[in-house]
Write a structure and sequence with these properties.
3 helices, mainly alpha, 73% helix, 62 residues
Length: 62
């Protein structure tokens, strides 16, 4: 039986571990970039973009 794990979930877990361990290196930067790249290809991309746009608009109105 094969178990498949989406890459964004795998990179998310690795990134969470690296952040919790307070490890800052080139490897963790690559993991963070890869996590963002694979997250952008999921259905979560549109709500994240909308949230970001709304936050920018709210900050510019202050």
């Amino acid at each position: 039986m094969a178990i498949t794990v989406p890459l964004f979930a795998l990179f998310g877990l690795i990134l969470a571990f690296l952040l919790r361990a307070k490890t800052l290196s080139l490897g963790s930067a690559f993991i963070a970039a890869a996590f963002g790249f694979f997250l952008a290809s999921t259905g979560a991309a549109k709500p994240i973009n909308q949230l970001t746009e709304n936050l920018i608009q709210a900050l510019s109105n202050l």
